[in-house]
Amino acid sequence: QLVQSGAEMKKPGASVKISCKASGHTFTSYYFHWVRQAPGLAPEWMGMIYPRVGSTRYAPKFEGRVTMTSDTSTSTFYMDLSSLTSDDTAVYYCARDRGLVVALWHFDLWGRGTLLTVSS
Amino acid sequence: DIQMTQSPSSLSASVGDRVTITCQASQDISTSLSWYQQKPGKAPELIIYDASTLESGVPSRFSGSGSGTDFTITISSLQPEDIATYYCQDYDNLPTFGHGTRLDIK
Predict the structure, then answer these.
(1) What is the pLDDT of residues A8-40, one digit of tens each?
(2) Which helix H or strand E contains B48, and what residues bound it?
(3) Are A85 and A118 contacting, i.e. CB atoms less than 8 angstroms apart?
């Protein structure tokens, strides 16, 4: 399963760091993704991390503003988003890639989501 | 960027009905398409990948088809627990989701 950190409330211009702890599978054998969903809208892919080597790939929209990291000792990965605006208000999900050791780019296990509210 | 267009945006059907939702890609994505089911307040759940492969544990009343630019998901006999929003997702390049189809009971 994937267990995410709790809801966050931030002011515009601030940064947020959301965590996702994996259990029940070999952490370093999978790619993990972050997907966000603004109220009433479709999910939006933000980026991916492969904890085995620490490699990342980000959606162009978030390049320069998002950083994804991982800690193999705790099977936890993180998504750091900076320069927040009200448009970043959304539920942020972590998700596991269905592929084993290879990225297949679709997601078979999801966290329950972390609500981020950005408001002054 | 690839655009994914789903139709209809919402759909009402009766229990036992056959339901079909379509997804059209703006360019050829072969069979690099998955479908997700999302119930209110919950995370999406993978139900079909590679356009037509059923994820483990998903009822056989769900099926997917298509390749290239046109795809469908079909529920052969709608059940009350199928009420949800359905999203297609392309992964030929970076993942892109369709805008969703909200399915409810008539």
Answers:
(1) 999 999 999 999 999 888 888 999 999 999 999
(2) strand B45-49
(3) yes
Q: Does residue B66 sit at the A interface (CB-CB below 8 Å)? A: no
Residues B15-73 pLDDT 10s: 999 999 999 999 999 999 999 999 999 999 999 999 999 999 999 999 999 999 999 99
Cis ω for the linkage preceding B8 (within 30 of 0): yes
Is the distance from CB of B1 to CB of B96 less than 8 angstroms?
yes
- A·B CB contacts under 8 A: 49
Q: A-contacting residues of B 46-65, CB under 8 Å?
A: 46, 49, 55
Contact A106 B46 (CB under 8 A): yes
